[in-house]
Amino acid sequence: MTHDWSRYWRSPDRPIEAMHAHFERHVYHRHSHETYSFGLTETGAQSFSCRGGAHTSAAGMVMAFNPDDPHDGHAADALGFTYRIVHLGPELVAGALADATGRRTGLPLFDSPVVDDPALAYALRALHAALLDGGTTATALRREELLTAAVASIVRRAATRQPGSKAGDSTGKRVARRARQVLHDRPTDDLTIDDLARAAGASRYAVYRAFQAEYGLPPSDYQRQLRLRKARALIAAGTPIGEVAAATGFADQSHLTRWFTRCFGLTPGAYRRAAQQR
């Protein structure tokens, strides 16, 4: 008998979401988020692949995912793991850093997805607990303070590229970004690799290779992520799940539910209830 459980919280007006969960049997399908995602493993250990490598986050370790970082995940043993994770929109991270430094500094880059740092773990747990308590013990002002402190601490202690620095460009990156723009412009269309190749001005193989290298997913998987993100927004807004499935390019409600659960760790219905609680 499985003992998997999860609690989810979503801000009604800001790009902040948080989950507290224990998984023994659930296996995350390879997916990504449009947000920065910072997790803390509380008990047990979870294994996952990210950025071409295999990683394990044991109790007390922090995970740091950049926006669009593809990753999966599962329990490292039969005992499972308990973890907390906070998803923060890039604009919110930039704003928190501005609050901490007094000026807009751009966005950071995290190279290592696992960080063993007790100070970071403490800051992240404090923020997460304040978000999930629904204002019972932490005031709105206190939550803002914890958010600013946690983001500043994570960037200062774990970011590889500090805000303000710029990464170089290349032909492969440009090809990948042109293909990506087509997917963002037409997320529910039945696109082919030829459609992407024409838009990118490159061969089908070049598009596939460049896209995989830049974003860690093939274009079809990336398109599914876009559909799931749109589905989350519609579900949070109160749209019936069956209508959401039709509007986001899924075959039916069960198809959407299957992929939603595999990628986010909870069903669309549970996500809708978490959104409505606020």
Task: Describe the protein.
It is a single chain. With 278 residues, the protein is an alpha+beta fold. The mean pLDDT is 90. The protein is 46% helix and 21% strand. Strands 1, 2, 3, 4, 5, 6, 7, 8 and 9 form a 9-stranded antiparallel sheet that branches. The protein has 3 domains: 5-158, Regulatory protein AraC (Jelly Rolls, Sandwich); 168-216, Homeodomain-like (Arc Repressor Mutant, subunit A, Orthogonal Bundle); 224-278, Orthogonal Bundle (Arc Repressor Mutant, subunit A), CATH 1.10.10.60.
Tell me the structural class.
alpha+beta
Helix tally? Answer: 10
Q: Which consecutive residue ranges, at least 5 long each, have pLDDT under 50?
A: none
Percentage of helical residues? 40-55%
**What is the overall pLDDT average?**
90
C-alpha termini separation: 32 Å
Main pleated-sheet profile: 9 strands, antiparallel
Structural domain tally: 3
Strand residues, percent = 15-25%
Mind telling me the CATH class of the largest domain?
Mainly Beta
CATH-defined architecture of the largest domain: Sandwich
CATH topology of the largest domain, what is it called? Jelly Rolls
What is the CA-atom radius of gyration, in angstroms?
19 Å
What series of H and E elements makes up the topology? EEEEEEEEHEHHHHHHHHH
The CATH homologous superfamily of the largest domain is named Regulatory protein AraC
Compute the number of strand runs. Answer: 9
Query: What sort of overall outline do the alpha carbons produce when their principal axes are compared?
Result: globular
Oligomer: single chain
Domain HTH araC/xylS-type: 177-274
InterPro entries: AraC-bd (IPR003313), AraC_XylS_family_regulators (IPR050204), Homeodomain-like_sf (IPR009057), HTH-like (IPR037923), HTH_AraC (IPR018060), HTH_AraC-typ_CS (IPR018062)
Pfam families: AraC_binding (PF02311), HTH_18 (PF12833)
Organism: Nonomuraea maheshkhaliensis
